[in-house]
Amino acid sequence: MTGSLDEVFRREAGRCTATMIRILGDINLAEDAVAEAFAIAAAQWPKTGMPPNPGGWITTTARNRAIDWLRRESTRDERHIAAHRLQVDTMDPYHNPELDRLDDFVDVVADDQLRLMFLCAHPALAADAQVGLILRLLAGLSTGEIAAAFLVPEATMAQRIVRAKRKLHDNHATYRVPGAAELPSRLHAVLAAIYLIYTEGHTATSGQTLTRTSLSAEAIRLGRTLAELMPDEPETIGLLALMLLSESRRPARISADGTMVRLADQDRSRWDRTLIGEGHELVRACLRRNQPGPFQIQAAIAAVHADAPSAASTDWPQIITLYDQLSALRPNPVAALNRSVAVAELHGPVKGLDALAEIDPASLENYQPYHAARAGLLARAGRHQEATAAYDRAIELATNAIERDFLVRQRAAL
Amino acid sequence: MPQYLISVWHDDTYETDFSAPDAQRRVAQVGAFNDQLQQAGAWVFAAGLHPASSATVVRSSVGQVSMTDGPYAETKEQMGGFWVIEAPDLDAALEWGGKAAAASEGPVEVRPAQG
Predict the structure, then answer these.
(1) DSSP per position, A84-152
(2) B98 touches chain A (CB under 8 A)
(3) Where in the sequence is the domain holding B102, given as residue range(s)?
(4) How distant is the Cα of A168 from the closest Cα of chain B, in angstroms?
(5) Which helix (H) or strand (E) holds B65?
(6) In this prediction, does ipTM exceed 0.90?
(7) Whether residue A101 has pLDDT greater than 80
(8) What is the CATH number of the domain that holds B35?
(9) Which among A396, A370, A369, A398 is positioned nearest to A207, based on CA atoms?
(10) How many domains does chain B have?
């Protein structure tokens, strides 16, 4: 019973919260109502059995709790409640007709989840606040769980989330899906936030373990939801494919003795073929639509890697072409860095270093992978003194213990 | 309707020579932006400010008023001007913010007013 209630919670908490925010116009009230509904479920369901539509039951119960609170509060101090409300299109929380006819709520639930994604990933919020809100409201993680995943004190994460909610409220943020004109940039912000959750889970920025699987799993779940909600936006499919293809390599990223293994040295028989198959299918579906975007191109690059039986037999010209497309769409120094690495694979370390030299070093000065990649190329070109200096800088910047160990061993091997 | 402050920020060493072609261009752009705000009914108030060095800080403590020279915040970046606008929500305010940044050719800060 507990297991299945947990399951319902994982599946439904985000959806119910999204709907309750629209109905109540208040994030905190919505969260409280959903939490209360789950508490009631935990007490009742063991006796009555799980209802046929658990999500509907939770939302209806949350609504009823909220009605009780609002009626009690409204007699006391209406202005107090109004002061905490978010801009919502439908809006009289005391006499909101939606509160009384929620039975058909299923049709609008998809839109509610989208509204909530766009609200959480509003570009007016800092990236870490976006990520905190998404995990709290859409993934249903507790503040403590999110803080643990990001290795920050719970109070820090709580403050980050409270501030973000408050900023949205004080600024009269509207709970809606952006219009066509703003959609591409706003959608990119949503995708970038989900990808940030994924990469944080993939390579933890600090700490002893290289990956935090649960964050990656949450990001993939959110990616799947978004791809279902916006199936006509190829970038949503691209993001999902990129995450699945990266995830497929997870089993090979850490060796038996707990050290990091570079892509070139990974045992490719340990890659997850099911994830690769799904990722490939999605990449092909994107390509057919012919509306390339940054996430689709990065997914295509991951697909080329996944296709290669060994590092040496990778289709490097194809990868360089894809990085060129990526830079043309969205010039960025990290893409240029990865392109240089591909150039080195195809034409040797000297050409790779030439390509690297074209990037403004100031833009990557504090980016550990830049110094690590440069050190590797310098070492291969026989320029050991410069390589040592570059490794020194990379080690200085490495915040993850396993990555740092890897770099220290590379430097020692010079 | 919610009100927002859109403020323009720049290094306090900014040029106040309004005859320079760059300044003339910005003045024209800001004028056109002001017209747009007024036509849309979003205009509340706006002003360009003299350099921060022209400011005086005034304090009041138990009935005693004291004055010191200079801006309150001793930072390199100072507010050079501002608009107060009305907008239905954050996204609308930020859209005006984008136009303000383009017109003044510098970063702007969009901040909601209380109430």
Answers:
(1) TPPB-SS--SSS-HHHH--TTTHHHHHHHHHHHHHHHT-TTS-HHHHHHHIIIIIS---HHHHHHHTTS
(2) no
(3) 3-112
(4) 8
(5) strand B64-69
(6) no
(7) no
(8) 3.30.70.1060
(9) A398
(10) 1
